[in-house]
Amino acid sequence: MDTTFSTFLHLIENKPHVRNKTVLIGLFCILIFSCNSDDKSTIDDNCNFISEIILEDDFNGINTSNYKITDVELKNDCLEITFGSSGCGPDLWEENLYSVDAFYTVFPLQRALKMKLINEELCLTVFQKTVSFDITPIQIDGQSELQLNIYGWNEQITYEY
Description:
Immunoglobulin-like, 2 domains, four-stranded mixed β-sheet, globular
């Protein structure tokens, strides 16, 4: 491999136009691979999941009785929910956070949220788990602040964006 590299250097050593092209290609590659996106529409790196807006009938059908929320914390665009549920272990649980476009009749508009826990385990041991949801999809155009009413949590959360 050292011989190949030496041969390559020898070939471009006396040919400035080849050397200039090689340098330009190298700089272009560095530029391409060093770029990153600051697009806010992507999921926050600290959130586990993305929240979703669903139809009102589907929202009303979500069961919230198979878990108990013990803590809620807002960290930038991530809503962190700590909850407990019985099962064989939280590793196989699936969690989703949903809202609906049917608003309370107050202004500014508020959002109702439900966490859906899919837990088909039959064990009776109670486990606690913390998950976080990117809540940027539930923002309302024209508002910079949103009151969140989470089923199973008795405190309203103020989300500023």
